[in-house]
Amino acid sequence: MLTGAVLWLVAFTPAADGGEEPQEVRYDGHKVVRVDLQSQAELDRMLRISTDPWTEAVGVGPMDFRVSPQEMALLEDSGIDYDVVIENVQVLIDAERDRLAFVGLRGAGIGDWFAEFKDYDAVNTKLNELATLRPDLAEVINVGTSLEGRTINGIRITGPGTGKPPVLFNGCQHAREWIAVMVPMYIADTLINDYDTDPAIQDIVDRVEFFIVPIVNPDGYVYTWGPDRLWRKNRRDNGDGTFGVDLNRNWSVGWGGAGSSGSTSSQTYRGLAAFSEPESSALRDLFVASPQMVSTIDFHSYSQLVLSPWGYTLDLTPDVSLYDELGSTMAQAILDVHGTTYIDGAAAITLYQASGISIDWTYGDQGAYSFTIELRPAGSSPGFILPPTRSFPPARRTCRRRFI
After folding, report:
1. Pick from 173, 253, 267, 345: most CB atoms within 10 A?
2. CA–CA dist 152, 141 (Å, integer)
3. Residue 218: which CATH number?
4. Are residues 121 and 222 in the same domain?
5. What is the pLDDT of residues 258-278, one digit of tens each?
6. What is the mean pLDDT of the chain?
7. pLDDT at site 267
8. Domain match, 221 and 333 both
9. Same structural domain for residues 149 and 39?
10. pLDDT digits (tens, 9 = 90+) for 217-274
11. Predicted model pTM
């Protein structure tokens, strides 16, 4: 008998060119380990052992890595101390797929839309439903087209009147970070559905023009719902047997610096040039088309962080005092609502250097106050493969408290 995971794979795996389905990528026996790297030499050694850091940026200090059984043997011989935080990655993936298959068999329209993760088509359907529900407040926007021809959709939400400051919320530059899709979707849903019943929501929608783009990387996101749940980059064919550019290393401010890679096989491969990818270019063009954009939040996972520029340098921004105030206010609001701690600070100082990231460009080139929010969890387990009960309560509560 076919298992739920196999049924799920048959239902959701897209066909490759020529109609041949890509082979499922499995992670049987792969572990996630946490290491506390003490030097650049140890970092270099660890990067030779594993090509898949699960920490957003790469640097000396605590980091999470996925290691295969073969890589585990190398790690044990390396002299690097480690703790196993996920024993078998494939067990988590299979459980997620079985759960999603069960939900699909029950009917996608039953219950709370936010009770489960949603794929690319379901997200786009929901965006259209929100715009249809309140055409006086919302319209779906076509932000651009991905490498494989998928539409990068967003939604514009605002109340009556003109001349209001625009802000941008976007998610899923990194394909495997599913919670970073659902949080901006919940923000959009709340702004529309609570407009008539919550005076605070009505006030902010009437004063601000919101642009929300939940899936910046649709090709990668679709791929994670098909053959490879842990795919991170876009689906650029690099011409050497490797695929993908890290969209959040493809922005022009600081492009090519520390915390990005020129190796096409790296998870942080920056591409051949800044804005070489249609997905990052599309989000840039949306920003440029709204020259009065005052603020943006780029949602990612995981680590529970509120990060501000700079990512590419340890230097402080001219607006460091304001960033400190805004970041600590947002972190405190999250703590007040549900007792979860988020750490705030400049990206390069709080985490590690990461060059070519979107918030460095939206602030450094466009002057918008910009943040990266690293969502749940704070620890390593379960990493990117969150059950819904661990995912959406912070999204709901955060939005209710106008964390946006």
Report:
1. 173
2. 9
3. 3.40.630.10
4. yes
5. 999 999 999 999 999 999 999
6. 89
7. 95
8. yes
9. no
10. 999 999 999 999 999 999 999 999 999 999 999 999 999 999 999 999 999 999 999 9
11. 0.91
- Answer whether residue 105 shows pLDDT above 80: no
Choosing from 56, 277, 279, 374, the catalytic residue is 374
* 287 and 327 together in one domain: yes
Estimate the crossing angle of helix 388-400 against helix 320-338, to 10 degrees.
Answer: 120
d(CA 172, CA 174): 5
Our count of domains for the chain comes to 2
Q: In the annotation, is 374 catalytic?
A: yes
What pLDDT was estimated at residue 15? 39
Query: CB neighbours (10 Å) of residue 250?
Result: 30
132 and 205 together in one domain: yes
Placement of tokens 């529309």 in the chain: 192
The range of the structural domain enclosing residue 370 comes to: 112-400
Best CA proximity match to 234, nearest among 253, 250, 218: 218
What is the average pLDDT across 300-304? 93
Helix axes 179-193, 388-400, angle to 10 degrees: 40
Nearest alpha-carbon partner for 210 in 285, 137, 288, 281: 137
Residue 222 belongs to a domain? yes
DSSP E strands in 40-194: the ranges are 52-53, 61-67, 82-86, 138-145, 151-157, 166-171
